[in-house]
Amino acid sequence: MSTGSTTMTRPFRMALALAALLAVGPALAGCSDAQVQDAVNGAVQGATDGDVSLGGALPDGWPAEIPVIEGEIKFGAGNTTNGDQGWVVTIASSAADPLADAKQMLVDAGFEADTSTSANVGDVGVESLKNASFRVTLAGTPDGVLYTVAPA
Predict the structure, then answer these.
(1) Which of 8, 71, 80, 123 could form a disulfide with 93 if both were Cys (CB 3.0 to 4.6 A apart)?
(2) C-alpha distances in angstroms, 72 versus 10, 27, 68, 94, 148?
(3) Tell me: the pLDDT tens digits for 72-86?
(4) What are the domain boundaries of the chain?
């Protein structure tokens, strides 16, 4: 029963963390980038029980069977809803085609493409792949890829 109440309070906690960040933002203006990132990470992790990374690392529990492209991890989050774990990660990349690279890495790892959920609009593309355990939806631009991972 406590899982349900924890899940329901996460959006509220995130809203509080973001409100706190906006309130102290002007005070952080004189701080270095590292100090600001540490402050933001601390506020968000405190509000979400440590399930969010604002850069540099994959979120806790990220499945080893899901490879990610090389680049800078800008954001990562994990959450459990109704007993199912899911993750979201954003990676900035200097690759010529980050989306194609991410898709190929997943195919090489045994994932199958689901062409019914792929799309391209301008510079933005969306691809969906799955294996027996996970469905991975990729949203890519020339600047990087957003991974959304859910149980299959």
Answers:
(1) 71
(2) 26, 27, 11, 9, 17
(3) 999 999 988 888 899
(4) 1-50, 51-152
